[in-house]
């Protein structure tokens, strides 16, 4: 059964509105993407700056280079409990 002219015009209107909505949403997503990329670039620069500034503190034990396990190892604080 063929559609009437009114139904075709209505479909055309609905589809054009959907296209406009999607184009607007795409522009919002593109702006957000640009913002995220700028934030990522800023973070990368901050990380590189801090890598250059931060000395290798705590990396030496007894005049030799410490291993990752030694650096991560921490003494436990203990206390006795009397009942």
Would you spell out the secondary-structure blueprint of this structure?
Layout: H1 5-53, E1 60-61, E2 64-65, H2 68-72
Antiparallel strand pairs: 1-2
Describe the model.
The protein has helices spanning 5-53, 68-72, and strands at residues 60-61, 64-65. It is mainly α and 83 residues long. It has a two-stranded antiparallel ribbon. Strand 1 and strand 2 (64-65) form a beta hairpin.
Indicate the multimeric state: single chain
The gross shape turns out to be elongated
Beta-strand portion reads under 5%
The low-confidence parts are: none
Secondary-structure element pattern, one letter each: HEEH
* Rounded Rg: 31 Å
The tally of strands reads 2
Largest sheet entry: 2 strands, antiparallel
Mean pLDDT: 83
Strand order of the largest sheet: 1-2
How far apart, in Å, are the first and last alpha carbons?
A: 90 Å
Strand-pairing-aware structural class: mainly alpha
- Secondary structure: helix percent: 55-70%
Query: Number of helical runs?
Result: 2
Summarize, please.
Helix content is 65%, strand content 5%.
Question: Which features does this protein show?
Answer:
single chain, 83 residues, mainly alpha, two-stranded antiparallel sheet, 2 helices, 5% strand, elongated
């Amino acid at each position: 059964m063929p559609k009437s002219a009114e139904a075709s015009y209505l479909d055309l209107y609905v589809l054009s509105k959907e296209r406009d909505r999607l184009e607007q949403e795409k522009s919002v997503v593109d702006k957000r993407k640009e913002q995220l990329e700028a934030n990522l670039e800023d973070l990368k620069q901050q990380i590189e700056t801090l890598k250059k500034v931060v000395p290798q503190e705590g990396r030496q034990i007894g005049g030799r280079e410490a291993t990752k396990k030694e650096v991560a190892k921490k003494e436990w604080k203990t206390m006795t409990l009397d009942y």
